[in-house]
């Protein structure tokens, strides 16, 4: 049922699951996957995660870069990697002046990553994210989301080699 809900973006299923006591676990997993700890992922009034975390509203807004980082943990079989903007700098002679150091760690088990990846593949293969399917031969996964009245629309997707997120907000 949860995989079917992802394909067709039936968020009420995920809201119900979060309401049944998993909201705090979802927030913990999101932080483990790379969503910054400075992003509280909690209701602004009671400072605790609520079922709204399943909908990404009311204090749960996450920047597109952070979304891509979080989803990359699925692509990397449960290993999170912090984002960086510059991989390497060389001088005019080709000497390396700077090289980014990978900052990785275990977000969750390979089994959890495999289950989420399995559930998110159909979203891109024939669900709400079908237009995001790459023609690279890499197996994709992803999830789209919108706010009420479609004021903001977003899609975050991944392949085994990369993750990306796009957000559009109408004024």
Concise summary:
With 171 residues, the chain is an alpha+beta fold.
Notes on the structure:
- This protein has 171 residues and is of the alpha+beta class.
- The chain is 33% helix and 19% strand.
- It is built from 4 helices and 7 strands; from the N terminus they run αααββββαβββ.
- Strand 5 and strand 6 (152-158) form a beta hairpin.
Q: What's the arrangement of secondary structure elements?
A:
Elements: H1 2-7, H2 11-32, H3 64-75, E1 79-81, E2 88-90, E3 96-99, E4 104-106, H4 110-125, E5 141-146, E6 152-158, E7 163-169
Antiparallel strand pairs: 1-4, 2-3, 5-6, 6-7
Strand content: 15-25%
Shape: globular
Task: Tell me the Rg in angstroms.
Answer: 17 Å
**Euclidean distance between termini CA atoms:** 35 Å
What are the segments in which pLDDT stays under 50 over at least 5 consecutive residues? none
Q: Could you report the average pLDDT, rounded to the nearest whole number?
A: 86
> What is the number of helices?
4
Total number of β-strand segments?
Answer: 7
Helix-strand pattern, N to C?
HHHEEEEHEEE
Characteristic key phrases:
171 residues, alpha+beta, three-stranded antiparallel sheet, 7 strands, 33% helix, globular
